[in-house]
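seq:
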Amino acid sequence: MTTKKQDAPEGNLDEAAAKEAAAKKATPIKVLRDFWDDDGTRVRKGAEVKVTVEVAKKLIGENKAERADPLPGED
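struct:
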């Protein structure tokens, strides 16, 4: 008797993996207002730090940070 391997739809698996990888990728931000990270460490205004994309979006949405990465062509 042979059994067939059931595969997940390729599009869903690749898409989910891409979203997860993007969320874990670090991106630089410039801190506009002090905040405390997950470890309870204070990050002061003016600091440039790398955080996950998810955290960056949250802080930017709360006007606590802005993007610090260069625009294309400004390397």
